Amino acid sequence: MVEFKNVSYTYPNGQHALSKANLDISDGEFAFVVGASGAGKSTLIKLILRELTATQGEIHVNGFDLNKLKPRKVPELRRTIGVVFQDFRLIPNLTVYDNVAFALRAIDAPTKYIRSRVPYVISLVGLAQKAKSYPNDLSGGEQQRVALARALVNDPQLIIADEPTGNVDPARSFEIVDLLKGINACGTTVLMVTHQHDLVRYFGGRIININTGEIVFDEVIGGADEA
């Protein structure tokens, strides 16, 4: 669950990045966040991840009150969130398996659990045959699937996909969203930030449009794939 109540954020230089935003994303929802560059999308994500603290208002994420969250508890919050980045952020000298396993090793997960969980998640994103490959041996779409597997391996309550289709070709873009939709259908909440309006129009669903720091549109629309 993500809840913003009258949230504003102003950067130290005086730039108003978010203004009196109200947002309620329930467990199990899928929502697109759209808006021009500089509209406030990145600030919204940073506030959810507690990289920034709201100047005004209240934020609750996955049961955490972010206004009252102590710094030592921030890693606990972030373990409930999986993040998929536009630029993949894979470790080039690690295999697909080890890139995904890295997220579990970082939190000292038991070896037995890692050995069962990692192959399962790699298979879930369709890369079982690529487990021993290195990132440079993969296509852009495959690298993004590895990044998605890494975000999923902790079984997070929320997936934030930040422009996940920005570095893949159009055909792969639809595959990535299809994959995210499938993950959402299994119960994981998904928040996807994108500037690709063709994807939004095709898939439809809940659309949250941010413009100059304000949420100007928050509605559910039908998609072309429903026609």
Largest sheet: 6 strands, mixed
Coarse shape: globular
Distance between the termini: 30 Å
Give the oligomer, counting copies of the same chain as homo and different chains as hetero: single chain
Q: How many strands in all?
A: 10
Summed up, the helix count is 7
Global mean pLDDT:
92
> Which class of secondary structure composition applies to the elements?
alpha/beta
Helix and strand element order: EEEHEEHEHHHEHEHEE
Proportion of beta-strand residues: 25-35%
Strand order of the largest sheet: 6-7-8-3-9-10
Quick overview:
Helix content is 32%, strand content 27%. It has 227 residues and is α/β, with parallel strands linked by helices.
Structure keywords:
single chain, alpha/beta, six-stranded mixed β-sheet, four-stranded antiparallel β-sheet, 7 helices, 10 strands, 32% helix
Structural write-up:
Helix 3 crosses helix 4 and helix 3 packs parallel to helix 5 (140-152). The strands form 2 sheets. The chain has a 6-stranded mixed sheet with strand order 6-7-8-3-9-10, sandwiched between helices. The chain has a 4-stranded antiparallel sheet with strand order 2-1-4-5, covered by helices on one side. Helices cover 32% and strands 27% of the residues. The radius of gyration is 18 Å and the shape is globular. The chain starts with a strand and ends in a 6-residue tail after the last strand. The model has no long low-confidence stretch (mean pLDDT 92). The chain has 7 helices and 10 strands. The chain has helices at residues 41-48, 74-78, 96-105, 111-124, 140-152, 170-185, 197-203, and strands at 2-10, 16-25, 30-34, 56-61, 64-65, 81-85, 158-162, 189-193, 205-211, 214-221. It is α/β, with parallel strands linked by helices and 227 residues long.
